[in-house]
Amino acid sequence: MAHSVKLKAGDSFPAMTATLLDGSSVTLGKPQGEATWQAVFVYRGRHCPLCTKYLNEIESYKQAFADAGVDILAVSGDAKHQLEKHLEKVDISFPIAYGLSEEQMKELGLYISIPRSEQETDHNFAEPGLFVVNEHGNVHVVDISNNPFVRPELGALTRGLSWIRDPNNHYPIRGTLDY
């Protein structure tokens, strides 16, 4: 049986791109604007009502992320037409990308699910994942789940990121012991 490889804390975040709705390419883990870190939220896709709720919730924490110097990007394995349809249900101002390939999902060490039916979706999809990439391009915080019910609580996450980013705290990347 093949084993999945999980991206570890402290690893270099792999170079990968996805596509924004306007057709432009976006590099995951490369912050935009003033921010020096980026939080990459991988979500399951348009078919998932919990993803819709979580994306809208992320929007309400956008300022807290910005205050911590952390840019936000959301991405899924959906196709362009699925993202267009999904945007009718989400009210967000941060970038959201589509077209994450199954190979990219595996490279990130995400759990991948097979759709239960054609009504759910028409492709295998990633379960939720969060990768916070620091200014050196390394994974500073990683959280992956095998189901849609377990995701970081955004208040705790943004408070934690603010604390980590405070230079007076000298807080290293945690969980780096190799075994």
TrEMBL record:
InterPro entries: AhpC/TSA (IPR000866), Thioredoxin-like_sf (IPR036249), Thioredoxin_domain (IPR013766). Residues 7-166 form the Thioredoxin domain. One of its GO terms (molecular function) is oxidoreductase activity. Pfam families: AhpC-TSA. This is Redoxin family protein. The lineage of its organism: Bacteria, Pseudomonadati, Pseudomonadota, Gammaproteobacteria, Vibrionales.
